[in-house]
Design brief:
With 214 residues, the chain is mostly beta strands. The protein has one domain: outer membrane lipoprotein receptor (LolB), chain A, CATH 2.50.20. The protein contains 1 helix and 12 strands, in the order H-E-E-E-E-E-E-E-E-E-E-E-E. It has a 12-stranded mixed sheet with strand order 7-8-9-10-11-1-2-3-4-5-6-12, covered by helices on one side. It is globular, with a radius of gyration of 18 Å. The protein starts with 21 loop residues before the first helix and ends with a strand.
Length: 214
């Protein structure tokens, strides 16, 4: 599963813009400023994957993530990922295994939830796209296109609630026909969270295999 989609709800740290659609730039800046104003964000989402070129290639699941600064706790596909700001803990009950690593040791090309939309700052152009009415909500899409012609991504559509300036969904379309989408079911901010939410307690996994990656 491409974790590029998890980025969609986390870091919006725009440091500067190239020559893009002025309206799209203004909207993305508003979203960025809104995200930065929150102490923490809690999101429940739906993840969908489809490939029109492969028969029966379809997957749908739900997940949730809590983000506070660089820290996050992500649950999806039965796996929990905790990043405490320095170390990443990937907990798989099915395999009875915990993988402990630095965030930088993740597979190449993946992006942590705490990096949200900064993935395209230097590699994408963007412009305003269609507007849709979703259950009474005005969703404005921004189309992101990779500058690298060799990229596996054809384009990304980012749906933004025009009223709240919160992200509603993100759709990634691949050149191979694969379409992945992340849709926000609930978006909560500045919630009271446990001080130990981003702390890994190894004693709870005494029967698990601990895989430490240097």
């Amino acid at each position: 599963m491409k974790r590029i989609l998890f980025l969609a709800f986390v870091s919006l740290g725009f440091t500067g813009f190239a020559q893009h659609d002025a309206k799209a730039e203004t909207l993305l800046t508003e979203v960025s400023n809104k995200i930065k104003s929150y102490k923490n964000i809690s999101i429940d989402f739906k993840y969908e994957l489809n490939n029109v070129n492969e028969e029966n290639m379809s997957q749908e699941t739900r997940g949730d993530v809590v983000i506070e600064g660089e820290k996050y706790k992500l649950n999806i596909l039965g796996v929990t990922r905790i990043f405490d700001g320095k170390t990443l803990y990937t907990i798989s009950p099915e395999d009875e295994e915990v993988t402990i690593s630095s965030e930088n040791s993740e597979e190449e090309g993946t992006i942590a939830p705490s990096d949200m939309l900064s993935f395209y700052e230097d590699g994408y152009t963007y412009k305003m796209d269609i507007v849709q009415n979703v259950k009474g909500r005005k969703i404005q899409y921004v189309k992101l296109t990779p500058m690298d012609t060799n990229s596996e991504i054809k384009h990304v559509l980012l749906g933004i609630d025009a009223t709240t300036k919160h992200i509603y969904n993100l759709i990634e379309v691949g050149k191979n026909g694969t379409k992945t989408a992340l849709t926000v079911n609930s978006f909560q901010t500045d919630q009271p969270i446990s001080k130990t939410l981003f702390t890994f307690d190894e004693s709870k996994y005494a029967d698990y295999y601990i895989n430490r990656i240097d």
